Automatic annotation (TrEMBL):
Signal peptide, first to last residue: 1-29
A Pfam entry, by short name: AP_endonuc_2
UniProt keyword terms in alphabetical order: Isomerase, Signal
Organism the protein comes from: Cerina litoralis
Residue ranges constituting the Xylose isomerase-like TIM barrel domain according to the UniProt record: 63-286
GO molecular function terms attached to this record: isomerase activity
Top-rank taxon, per record: Bacteria
Protein name: Sugar phosphate isomerase/epimerase
InterPro entries to which the protein is assigned, alphabetical: IolE/XylAMocC-like, Xyl_isomerase-like_sf, Xyl_isomerase-like_TIM-brl
Length: 287
């Protein structure tokens, strides 16, 4: 390059730098990464009476709040409030749900209906278009041997569910953390006994009231979790649910570990205070 060309191009380059330096640094600041990168749904059990009375109206209301998914409860297993839906086939229920603008990826099934009628429940789940088939509890037992026996049963059911094209999951409550064997929570035994290739976990954050955090388990057992139920509790009264972000849970910590845990979706579940459902999704979308 000739000297004159070099000087000219250098002058232009320096001028450009000078112009750029006049702009505030915020113009070029990176957009903060979103912490919540998975879809947000709600658990139907918290609105079971409303859903039983008017499924369409209730789901459309939740779509209006910004929810993308609903996690259903098997009408056959939850007959008290979901009984009005038991008349529908899985295909019919899928159509009713999707017509409201919301999607259904997963559903809860009771331990008893899975033990007694698994083939029919798998057929229903496939018609409903489910990806996640979640056992809603039932492994808690008084002895380690009984827990192990039940885990073996669920492993076998999980293999069958997997063969049908879905992922089996297990949903905890606080009992699996209150109940301990040799000083360890029963939940830890479940993670040892359940086959990670056959049964994944759905973590319920209610156990923060007992001092257990989802992030701890996500880091210790990467890839073992497919979903979570989100709840938060008052700092002054751990029995009272509050809007997510206003309680004792550290949601930034939770979602920072969510990918490592394997979460594919989260469900807001405010059982005793469904009025917080609207503000909770607003909070999650702000993270």
């Amino acid at each position: 390059m000739q000297r004159r060309q070099f000087l000219t191009k250098s002058t232009i380059g320096l001028a450009s730098v000078g112009v750029l330096s006049q702009f505030p640094h915020t113009l070029f600041a990176a957009t903060p990464a979103k912490l919540v990168t998975v879809p947000i749904g709600f658990q139907s059990y918290v609105l079971r009476k409303d859903i039983g009375l008017d499924l369409d109206k209730t789901l459309k209301k939740m779509v209006g709040y910004g929810y993308e998914y609903v996690e259903m409860c098997s009408p056959s297993g939850y007959m008290n409030d979901f009984a009005p839906l038991a008349k529908y086939s899985g295909k019919e229920l899928k159509s009713r749900i999707e017509d409201t603008g919301i999607k259904c990826m997963g559903s809860h099934f009771t331990w008893n209906e899975m033990k007694n009628n698994l083939d029919e429940r798998i057929e229903f789940a496939n018609q409903l278009g489910l990806e996640q088939f979640v056992c809603s509890g039932g492994l808690d037992s008084p002895t380690e041997d009984e827990v192990k026996r039940k885990c073996a049963e669920l492993n076998a059911m999980g293999e069958k569910i997997k063969s049908a094209g879905m992922v089996a999951g297990y949903h905890n409550h606080d009992i699996e953390f209150k109940h301990k064997f040799n000083g360890r929570p029963e939940y830890d035994l479940l993670l040892e006994e359940l086959n990670p290739d056959a049964v994944k976990m759905q973590f319920q954050t209610q156990v923060i009231t007992l001092g257990y955090k989802g992030s701890t388990y996500f880091k210790k057992y990467p890839g073992r979790f497919i979903s979570a139920h989100l709840q938060d509790y008052s700092p002054t009264d751990h029995s009272r649910e509050v809007t997510l972000g206003k309680g004792i849970s550290d949601w930034k910590d939770f979602f920072s570990a969510a990918k490592k845990g394997g979460l594919q979706i989260v469900y807001v579940e405010m059982e005793s205070n469904p009025g917080t459902l609207k503000d909770s999704i607003t909070y999650l979308k702000s993270l």
